[in-house]
Each structure stands twice: as structure tokens, then as C-alpha cells.
Amino acid sequence: xxxxxxxxxxxxxxxxxxxxxxxxxxxxxxxxxxxxxxxxxxxxxxxxxxxxxxxxxxxxxxxxxxxxxxxxxxxxxxxxxxxxxxxxxxxx
Length: 92
Hints:
Layout: E1 2-9, E2 16-21, E3 31-35, E4 42-46, E5 53-56, E6 64-65, E7 67-68, H1 71-77
Parallel strand pairs: 2-6
Antiparallel strand pairs: 1-2, 1-5, 3-4, 3-7
């Protein structure tokens, strides 16, 4: 299941976007990276403490995907036999 975070301020363009996170959960202490849909710039952010997420079977059009910083590098270094969700946290 994917998570949808609505109306979060974008540090690149100054407007608000809907952001999406894969089902590995999220927290306000994690640094996330994304590409602004308005400017195309790569940026990082921490989610505000007031952010709330909705379960979504899929993301609506225009959602900006968030990825934890370093997740791609960690996945590339992980042995193939290891689970694809190893090291990822699920928050309740």
C-alpha cells in the first residue's frame, strides 16, 4: 500500500504538492529526496510534524514521489539474496 501526504510545502517552487511514499512508512526525522514537479529541481526535505498520511492503493496523477536519502545507494550494495524490505522501518 502506498501513502499519500497532501498539501506539503515544496522548498523548490514555494507551492504545495501532494507527495507519495511507498509502503515502507515515514517519519519526521528522516531526510527525503524528491524532484519538484514544477521546476524539475532535485531537493531534500524532512516532513513537518503536522503531516498526516492517507493509505492509497495507488497515487493520483501529479503526486511527487519521496524517497529516503541514501535508499538507492543502500539497495545497490545489498546482497541479492536479502529481502527487498530489509532495513526499512514500518511505523504504526
